[in-house]
Each structure stands twice: as C-alpha cells, then as structure tokens.
Amino acid sequence: MRVRAAHLIGRDAEVAGLGESLRDLRRSRGCTTFLVGEGGIGKSRLVAELIGEAVDAGVRVLRGRSSTIGPMVPLRPLTEALMPLSRGGETPDEASLGPYRPVLGRLIPDWSTGTPDQGSTVVLAEAVLRLLASAGRDQGCLLVLEDLHDADTETLAVVEYLVDNLEQQPVMLVATVRSEPGEALLLAESAGRRRSGTVFRLAPLDDDEVNRLIASCLDTEPGLVPAEVLTQIREDSAGIPFLVEELLQGAVTGGALVRENTAWRVAGNLRRNVPRALLEGAIHRIDELGPQGQTLLSAAAVLGRRFPLSVLQLMTGADDRSLLSHLHAGVTARLVAADEPAPDWYAFQHPLTAEALLAQLTPTARAALSHQAADAIEALHPDLQGDWCPLAATLRADAGDPVRAGRLFTEAGRRALANGTVGSAVTLLDRAETLLAGGTDSAARAEALEALLPALAETGELTRALSLASSLRELVGAGLGAPRLAALHTRLAQVAYMAGRWADGNNQIERARALLGPDPDEAHTALTDVVEAYLCLDTPGQDRTQRAERLARAAIDTAEKHDQPLVACQAWELLGVVARERDPAEAVTYLERAMNTAERHSLPLQRMYALTRLGGSRWLADGGTATLDEARTEARRLGAVTVVYTLDGILALHDVLCGRFAEARVLGDEALTMAARLRLTPVARYLLMTRSVLAAHQGDRAAMEESLTEFGRWGGSGSPEEPLALGLARVFCALLEEDRDRAARDMAGLQALEAENPSTFHLGGRHGLGLLLDLLDGRLDRGRLDRVAASSAGRMRWNRHFVLLADAVLLGREGDPEAAGRAAQLAQEVGAPYPTARHLGQRLIAEEAHALGWGDPEGWLREAEHHFRETSATAVVGACRTLLRAIGAPVRQHRTGSNRIPAQLRLKGMTVREYEIFQLLADRLSNKDIAARLYISPRTVEKHVASLIAKTGLPNRSELCALAAQQS
C-alpha cells in the first residue's frame, strides 16, 4: 500500500480558497489563512499541496514549524522559515528595512550586529514584515508556519502583527493550528472575527471521502476494497485522515489485510478500540520492538517530540549497539525519524505517538523518567545553555521538585529577557513564580519576581505587574530581608515610570523607603534614588526639578562608591537635563560624564542615551541637529528602534519650527503610528504635541484642537510637554488668527502652569515669545528682560530671536533708534532658520517701529505678507496690508499669476502686469511693441516701466532690460 494517498481528498473548498489567495498574491494582495483542526486531520497535507502549487508558480516559499523540546523554543518557526534567506547568501536590503535591520539578528545570527537586541516583539514583527515584503517583491512570498499551537509567545505576537498588516504586501501567510484550546486558536479565531484572516476549519472526512482515501492508499478503486474494511476503518478513524492511514498501515503490516494480485482480502481482525485507535496502533507497533524498545521510546517521549540520543542513552543506560538497534527498529516501524539537520536528534513522526507513549506511563514511572532525564541533561550540559535550561526546568517540575524547577525557570526567564524574547521570559518567570509561591524558599521567589517585574513592563502589562505587590507582602513574613523587598518595590516604581504612571511609581518608592528605614545602608539606595529622580520630573509640582537634581546627585555619589555604573549613567543623564536652564556648558559636562562612564563600562545603550540627550541640548542651544543625527544613526546601528522614534519626534518638531511642514508631517505621522502600536506613551505624547504645533503654525485650529485632545488622552495634562502644547500651539495659533487677547490669555495660562509645574522643555514661550507679548502689552520692564536674556533658556536660539525683538522695542522706547534697528537686524539673523516665527515677529513689532522711527517696518510687513500669503494665514496677511496702508505705503493687488513672479521681485512690489512687461524687456522691445503684444496702450507701458525702474532701484531703462535678460 501507499504510505499516503496519491491525491488530496475531501478538501476541494480549501484548495480552491488557497489557490485564489495564491493568485491574488501575484497581484501584491497579501492575506493570512489558518488551517485549524485536530491532530491528523490533514493540515500538513493541505500545506504540502499549496507549497507545490506555489513552487510551480515561481512564488518564494519559506517554511518553519514549532517544537516541543521544552516549554517553548522562542521564535523557532520564524528562525527556521527565514534561515534559507541567509543560507542563500542574501542580505536584507538596507533601504527597505531601515532601522529594523539589526533587529533581525534575533532570528538569523548571520545578520546580527553582535549587540543583544532588547526591543519590543512588535518591532521585531515589523522587521519580519518588511523582510517578507522584500523577499516577495518580485513573485510573491508564501510563509508557512506549522504547529502554531506549540509556538512561543513571541512567535504568536509576530503572527498577530503580520495578520493585521499583510493586506497590501506581496506575502501570504498560512499557519496550521490544532483545534484544542490555546493561545494560537484564540489568535486564529480573533483574526477570523476581524476578517483580517481566513480560518478553514478542517472537518473529518465523510463516509464517501474516507472510502476514496482508503482506496487511494491501497492503490485501487473503492468498489474493489472489501466492505468490511471500509466500514471498520470509517468507524475506527472517525474520519481523521491520519488515523485512516495509520489503521491501514497497521492492518497491512500486521497481516490482517493482504493483497492477492489486484484485489485486497481480509485475513485477520481489523477492529480497534475507538477513540484509542491510534494509541493502540502505535503501541502495537511499539510492543513489537520488545520491552527494551518500548522503554527506550517511553524515555524519549518524556523529553518531548524531539529528543537527542546522547541524553536518551545516559538516562536509560543503553549501550551504543542496543540504542541504535532499537532506534533503527523504531524508524522501520515509522514511529520515529531522524530530525535533520540537527545531528544525533530524532523526532516522533507524529506528536500523537509521543502522547500515546506518555499515556501508558503511571505517574510514578513518568516522574522517575523525568528525574533521570533532568539528571542526564545537567550532566551532559552543566551550563544548561539555550533550550536545555527550560527543558530541564520542565523535567524537574514533572519529577515533583518545584523549588529546583522554579530556580531553573527563573534562570531561563532571565536569559530570555536578556535576549529580547520578552514574551517567553514572562511565561517562564510566571511558571517559576507559580512553582515557588507558597513554598519555603522566599529568596528563590524573590529572584523570580525581581526578573518578572521588568519583563512585564516590557510587554506593557503594568496593571499585572503592580498586582504583584500582594506577592511582595507575602514575602514580608517569610524571612526575606528588607533590602531585597525594597529592591522589588523599586522595580515596581521603575515599571510605573516606564509607562508614565508617576503616582503609582511614587507609591512604590515610599514603600521601598519605609523598608530601608531611616538609616539605610547606602549600597541599597542608589537605584531607589535615581528611579525616584526620574519620577520627580514626571510628577507635577513646583520644585520637581530641584528634587530630581538632589536625588540624582545622591545616586551618583552612592553608585560611584559601590561600582554601579548603570545607575551612575542614568543619574548623570538626568543632571544634564535639569542643568539646561541654568548653564548649557554644565549640562554638556554632565552628559559627557554619562557617555564616558558608559564607554568605560561597555554600556553601548547608555552611551547612546547620553548622546541623544547631548544632541537635544545642542539643538536647543544653536538649532543644529548634527548630534541628534549622529545619535539617530547610533540608535539604528544598535537596533534601538524606540530611541529612533524619540529622535524622530524631536526632528519632526525641528522641521515644524523651520517651516518644513510637509517633511514634518511625513516623519511625525510614521513615528506616531509606531509609537502608538508599541504603546510608547512618552514618545506618543511628544509626537502628538508636535502634531498640534504643526497644525497651529499653519493656522488650522480644528486640526490643532483634535491633536491636543488626543494629547490629553495620552496623559498630556501635567506632563512636561504641556507648556509646549500651550505656547508653540495655542499661542501661535491665536496670533496667526490675529486674536491677541486669546494669545495673551493662553500665554498667561502657560506662565501660571510653569510657575506651579516647571518643565524641562524651555521653548513654550516663558523665555521668548511671552516676553515680547508682555512688552507690547506694557507688562515688561528692562530688568526682567535682561535677566531672561542672560539665562540659559533665554540664550536658546528659538527664544533668543524673540528676546532680541523685545530688546529692539525697548531700545526704541528708550530713545535709541539706531540701537533698536541693530537689535532688530540681529533678531532677523538669529531667527533665519524659523520663518514662521521670524515673520510673525516682524508683524508684531512693525507698527511700533514705524511710530518711533526705527528699523524697516515697511520691508518687514511686505516680507511677512508674502510669507503668510504662501502659508494661507489670511488673518496675518490682512493685518499686514492694513498696517502698510496705515503707514502710507502702497499696497499692491494680488492678481492671478503672482506666484510666477520670483520672490525677490515680488518683495519689491512688482505686480503681475509689471512682471509681464518686465519679461518682454529682456528682448529690448519698444513701448509700442510691448503694447501691441499685451493689448494695452504705449502710455500704460511707459508708466509701468517707470514704476519698474523705481521699484528695482535701477538708474535707467537699459539697466532694467539687462536685469530682465538675467532673470529670463
């Protein structure tokens, strides 16, 4: 008989659906399909048919499956599927992957940068999505993930992300899932409900289909198969294709069904107990191997579906000859097979076979085998690297040793967290905490909790992490020292800070302080001090920056004394932030100390963070982004995608302030999309503030208010970014609407907010635009202006532009028009990178400059009118024209076609008609010829030429013609 049927039977609808999806793939329409059914229902056979069709169509096929060697093998199916790209010599496309390229080193070692990636699983999923899109850009890509029910948490998270993002990509994902309850089945059902994926539930074959399957396996027609065989196999298999094939195999090899010429004849008992048909069939074949063979395979089943011969031999004591003899018999009986390409590894051909073997063991026998297996693994692999640690932990748990199992799960969880497989870390550490809960080893449980808290923070499970506070209380009376408990509460505080929950964080810090007592050992206080310092910056309060600085300095002293470089780096960075307001040089010194400490102790991520903050300080000081760009390059190299998005937020705000609105929108929207997906609350909040500023600087109040509402939903109220949202957005928008009263009210609200709740962001207006508005409204004197001008914040380039304008106005009022003009000119130079702010400033000071006779108010108003006409700020345009008329300056009409006039000529007041004449002067035509071409009178041409000579400041018509020729 055939091992398998020659043709796929009973899956016409599924074949048609998969075929249609494959054809859509050629049109770059991606999709996801889940093949769901019980073991043996035919999922793998259906996948094999699809792969054959895909190969014939030229589609690239990538295939991976999950493993059950231990509780999980993080990301195994994805690694297995993507490895062929590396073996084929392909490297990921830098242009298409961007900052995601280093992240793929978690899956493909050949592409690793050598630095362990700590990024979110969602970031990894985006990297996989982009790699698959690149792999399928020519003919499409088919990704097959089998046995997803055995997959780890990270793999399921990546699959869920792919499901929601494949539609516009040339990628087809097909995953097989058992119908038993589990996370994989929930994922498939959720995708089906959302219609982001198709779920094919494979039902058992009906009687006719089973008959055809039997005939195909027996290489005959259904009518030539004995009716007894058809009936018995239908009943015993329950329509499961794998059981049909297994039952037939057992009947034929056992002599119950024999072939005579072209016909088949029943020669023995065909009956098997249902639903134990497969179990009995497999055990029957195992029994034929003899007691030693059965013992050997039972021991192998304890190790999982896959098992290494070295461990199996040590735990059973079998010699080489006996081991290989029984193993060869198992291969012949189609129970096991070599698990290529791993050397000396074998696997059961079907997971149900291993399950059948385990079902035959008594609990005592299984515990004993598990104990032997764990001892063998620890003897052969004492460091328990890779998958050995979680496997040994599982075996110790099965052997009834919860403490030893819990410690091993804790170690496996720590390693998973360090390698960036956060979901697996949570699962492993959860198992550890469960095993150790209620036990007597409180130190072991504390170790598990200490690792579990940051793992939960990385997965965004803040509420669950904070709920572990009750577990901490249980440890109080279990002999655990106060410093250990304080460290756990500090970890909880750090979790809260990472999620922007300052109140919860401060509560945990209070508990940590209470445990440490009034006179704590300073070796235990550094981490608590630095975490509380960062929380201070997020906690609304008048003295939050001062308190943060005091705590950071205390943390530095302790960290450097007790060799805690990571804490020292974090504290130096915080000092660099809070020192910006009083002394830029001091801030740079602190940040350079952080960088040097990180370099000295090989902390590349901390060096990158310090470089990022240093870039921010330099950007504030002079408006340059070179260091920020350097930091972004370093973040991309390290695969620190979160930092890349943080820097994108700063660079997007820089684009807004520089008037590059289109660039700011593209950069900001892309970064915000990813920050929202990753639940990076502080980053998303900053980007929403930037989006509101973008709308405000274009005079779009509706869009600004919409962004500010979303900003509030992300915790904007009381946040450090709130002053920027008020000053750079609300105040600017009101000024562009020519609503000075509203602008003054908003600025007063900003100043009151910062008086009660100081911010480390200094561009809101208190040190710049607010000074100018106060001065124009009579609420500022020379003393206050000079104090701000001398401050660090007042010297920041954005603010200094407005400080210089305010100084010019005061100098004019003090009777020094020349000095006022010089100050105004210097303000124009300082504000050159910021066109919206510069032209708004020109409009604000022009009226008073004209009244007191200093500067160039007419030129300023014309430049401002031109700028705001281009940005559609009609209220400011109207105000500029009104002021031009008020000072007696001519106001030109803006006819259709004015956009064709070069900016330098338009600023001189050249009209559309004058520009038409000016263009014809390039050929040195006479007034009469020009009049004929434009259908106007020669006298009109003469007047326009005279006006052109006056506006351009040229001495005669000949020079005017020469200029026209240059411009043409």
Quick structural gist:
The chain is mainly alpha-helical and 968 residues long. It is built from 49 helices and ten strands.
Protein architecture, described:
The protein is mainly α and 968 residues long. It folds into seven domains: 12-201, 3-Layer(aba) Sandwich (Rossmann fold), CATH 3.40.50; 207-275; 279-361, Orthogonal Bundle (Arc Repressor Mutant, subunit A), CATH 1.10.10; 362-436; 640-760; 802-891; 898-967, Winged helix-like DNA-binding domain superfamily/Winged helix DNA-binding domain (Arc Repressor Mutant, subunit A, Orthogonal Bundle), CATH 1.10.10.10. Helices cover 65% and strands 5% of the residues. It is built from 49 helices and ten strands. The strands form three sheets. A five-stranded parallel sheet has the order 2-3-4-1-5, with helices on both faces. α8 crosses α10 (241-253), α17 packs antiparallel against α18 and α22 (469-476) runs antiparallel to α23 (482-498). The model has no long low-confidence stretch (mean pLDDT 85).
Helix content, binned percent: 55-70%
- CATH arch. level architecture of the largest domain: 3-Layer(aba) Sandwich
| Domains (count) | 7
Which structural class matches the secondary elements? mainly alpha
The side-by-side strand order for the widest beta sheet comes to 2-3-4-1-5
**Arithmetic mean pLDDT:** 85
What CATH calls the topology of the largest domain is Rossmann fold
Percent of sequence in beta strands: 5-15%
Radius of gyration, whole Å: 37 Å
What is the overall silhouette?
flat
What's the β-strand tally? 10
Low-confidence regions: none
CATH first level of the largest domain = Alpha Beta
Measure the end-to-end span.
Answer: 88 Å
Work out the helix count. Answer: 49
